[in-house]
Amino acid sequence: MKVKITRVDKTLPLPLYHTKGSVGCDLYARITMVIEPKKIAKIPANIIVGTPLGYMFMIALRSSTPFKKGLIAPGGVGVGDADYCGPDDEYHISVYNCTDEDVTVEKGERIAQGIFVRVEKAEWEEVNIISKKSRGGFGSTGHK
Q1: 5 and 47 in contact (C-beta within 8 Å)?
Q2: Cα separation of 108 and 31, whole Å?
Q3: What is the predicted pLDDT for the residue at 140?
Q4: Tally of CA atoms within 13 A in the half-sphere of 138 that contains its CB
Q5: Nearest Cα to 44, choosing from 132, 109, 98?
Q6: By the 8 A CB rule, do 24 and 114 touch?
Q7: Average pLDDT over residues 81-85
């Protein structure tokens, strides 16, 4: 799949799939930032992506980021829409510093990964009852 991309800072590499089996491409911090303890920050990811229609560009932290940096994703994952691709639509990586110390993210550091996910839009059909039997409450799967 060919995807158009613009780098804000051309000195940083394009997102890279590091192995043949990698699902996500690594995203790099465009600037050095200090994230204060117990604060949320947005790290510029240096890219504007022309995500194809029928896909979203999902941003998730690298699995090593919480262990190495003490940073977690405050909203879980980021969802990039296909029409988020204008000249000022640089992706950012949302992080929460869950440590008691300042955390420094260096320019060029790999913090997150981008993953293209195929999506479909629903056409809603409203009904009074979907099923005559309820499965159970929230979190009930597998409990008897």
Answers
A1: yes
A2: 7
A3: 65
A4: 0
A5: 109
A6: yes
A7: 96
The per-residue pLDDT for range 23-78, each reduced to its tens digit, is 999 999 999 999 999 999 999 999 999 999 999 999 999 999 999 999 999 988 99
State the number of CA atoms in the 13 A half-sphere of 48 facing the CB.
Answer: 13
| Contact (CB, 8 A) for 97 and 42 | no
Whether this model's pTM surpasses 0.85: yes
At position 16, the amino acid (one-letter code) is L
Six-digit token string for 103: 């955390």
What string of DSSP letters covers the chain?
---EEEESSTTSPPPB--STT-SSEEEE-SS-EEEPTT-EEEEE-SEEEEPPTTEEEEEEE-TTHHHHH-EE-TTSSEEE-TT--STT---EEEEEE-SSS-EEE-TT-EEEEEEEEE---------S-S-SS---STT-TT--
In order, the DSSP letters of 99-130 are SSS-EEE-TT-EEEEEEEEE---------S-S
